[in-house]
Design a protein that fits this description.
- The chain has 12 helices and 8 strands.
- With about 325 residues, it is an alpha/beta fold.
- A hairpin with a 5-residue loop joins β1 and β2.
- α4 crosses α6, α4 crosses α11 and α5 packs across α6.
- The protein is elongated.
- The site of zinc ion (ZN) has 8 residues, from loops.
Length: about 325
Amino acid sequence: MSHDYQNALWRGFPKTLPEFEARFGTEEACRAHLAQWRWNGEPHCKRCASPNVWCERSGTLYECAECGHQTSLTSGTLFHGTRKPLKLWFQAIWEVAVHRTGISAADLQRILGLGAYETAWTWLHRIRRAMVSENREKLKGCVQIDEAFVGGKGSEKEMVLVLSEEYGRVRLIHAPGNHEACISHVVKEEIAADASIKSDGHAAYNITTLDKREHEAKVQNKEELREGDHLQQCHWSVARLKRWLLGTHNGAVRPKHLQSYLDEDAFRYNRRNTKGPGRLVARCIENMLAHTPTTMRQLIHNTGECRLFSGISY
Ligand SMILES: [Zn+2]
């Protein structure tokens, strides 16, 4: 997709709720928006690339006049397989993306009038997936790293690695531990090669795991913390995350779903200065199209510690 075309779509996206409701009040309008993002507004055949396609009555299914192949507007995206109106999906994305403290599945079900709690829960998780952009940029400059423990009771707590640019973006990663293999992997994936690191001096942060990045390690006692916290951004992030998990979700987050909650919290924090809620919604809708589908079965039975570590053995 050309950059200019993308910019025009961004500029034209509704900025407020009244604008949003006026613009996406019909299925046709929602479909048109998705078609613009997906195909520059010009649907074409997935098999032979012919632009000579005609739309079925459903409005989301296109049939190729050359080869007969059918292409769906939503197949292969996070909207895949939905039988509900796109209009309702757009409303759901608005609700989830714009609220500063997020929303629970029960509230989403109530607001949208969805029959089943499971539907609201599945939608919420799909929308959270859409809060992570593919090919996102690595953290730059000075990056603080720390560990935190959230959820569960006592030994059941889960480890979260907190990575934060100083006065910049944050990444929250559900990690199987803070041993060297794990730190090394996260640093490689999430932090630019020329960034510098600040840590609490844990032995796993070393020249090997940080791959020779400049490193300032500092063990802080209570006295020093009062004078100025070496890892302040990380500590603020952890406090915010814990408040949110307890407040909006009553702390009831299963370990296997923790990463998606971390993604949501980071999404909101990293866009704290974004002007107008419409931008957050536009980004989520764009990502809904960019990601591969997730079924309820996949969501519920996802047993991996975290998508970042899938397929990696320690
Ligand atoms: Zn074709």
